[in-house]
Amino acid sequence: MYMNGSGSYLDVLLSSESFSDLISRFYIISKISEFDNNLLNEIKESQKNIQKKKQSIELKQKELLSLKAELTVKQNELKKANIEKQSYYDSINEDLVNTEKILEKEVEESNRIKEEIRTVTEKNFSSDQDNSKKHSEDRIKQESRQESKQESRQEVKQKSKQESGKRAAILKTSDTGYSPVITSPFGMRFHPILKTYKMHTGIDYAAPNGTPIYAMSDGKVIVSRYSNSYGNYVVIDHGDGISTLYSHNSSNLVSVGESVKAGQAVAEMGETGYATGPHVHFEVRINGEPVNPEPYVIIGD
C-alpha cells in the first residue's frame, strides 16, 4: 500500500461513510503507514548490510586473488629451488666422481714413482754387484801386487760413502728473508682441494714463487717431469735405497740422468698441479715407500 503513495491514503479517508468510520480508517491507515515506514527502514538497513557484505566479499576475493598470486610465486620459487637442489646434488655427485678419479691418479702417480725408484735401485744394486764381482776377481788375480792400491781404493770408497751421506739444506732463509713455514706435515690430513681425508706423504713448506729449492744430498736425477697432481716435480736417487722428491715447482732446473751435488738448486718453488699456493712438497722415500721426511730436512741460513 505504501507504494501507491499519499493519494491512496486520502481516497480511503474521503470515502468514509461516517465520522466514526473516518476515525477508524485514519487509525488503520496510520498503523499501515507506520508498518510501511518500519518495513522501509528494515529494507534500507538490509540494503546497507548487503552492501557491506558485498564489499566484504569483494575484499575477501581480492585477498584470495592476492594469496593465489603469492601461492603461484611460492610454487615457482619451490620449483626453482628443487631444480637448483637437484643441480647441486648432481654437482656433488660429479665432484665425488672427479675426486675419486683425482685420488686414483695421485695413487697411480705415487706408485709409478715407487716403481721407477725401485727399478733404478735394483739396477744400481745389480751394477754394484757386477762391479764388486769383477773387482773381487781382479783382486784375487793381482792380490800380491796390489795390496797397497787396494787399501787406497778402500779409502777412496769410504770417503765417497761419507760424502754421499752428507746432507744440505733444501731451503735457505737467506732466499726468503724468513724461515719457511710448514703448511702441512707428514701424515693423514684433510685435503684442502679434494675435501677428503687422505695420507699426506711429505712435508709442505710455503715460500714465494721462484724460491730456490736445493738437493738434500748428492745423487742422480731419475725423474723430472709434470703431472696433474704433483705439477712439476723432481726425484733424486741418493743411493742406499734413499730418494727425495720435490714437487709443485714453477720450474725444474735439472734433467733425468743428471748428477747433482748436495745443496745444488734443482727447482724453483711454485704452485703447479694440485696446490692452493706456492710451496714445495718434499718427500723422502726408502726403497720407493714414503717415510716421514722431518728427520732429513735441513733449513739453512
TrEMBL record:
InterPro entries: Cell_wall_metabolism_enzyme (IPR050570), Dup_hybrid_motif (IPR011055), M23ase_b-sheet_dom (IPR016047), PcsB_CC (IPR057309)
Amino acid composition bias (Basic and acidic residues), ranges on this chain: 130-166
The keyword Signal is assigned to this record: yes
Pfam families: CC_PcsB, Peptidase_M23
MF-aspect GO terms: metalloendopeptidase activity
Range of residues in the leader sequence: none
Region spans: Disordered: 121-172
CDD domains: M23_peptidase
UniProt keyword Manganese present: no
Residue ranges constituting the Peptidoglycan hydrolase PcsB coiled-coil domain according to the UniProt record: 3-53
Limits of the M23ase beta-sheet core domain: 198-293
Protein keywords: Signal
Protein's name in the database: Peptidoglycan DD-metalloendopeptidase family protein
Originating organism: Clostridium bovifaecis
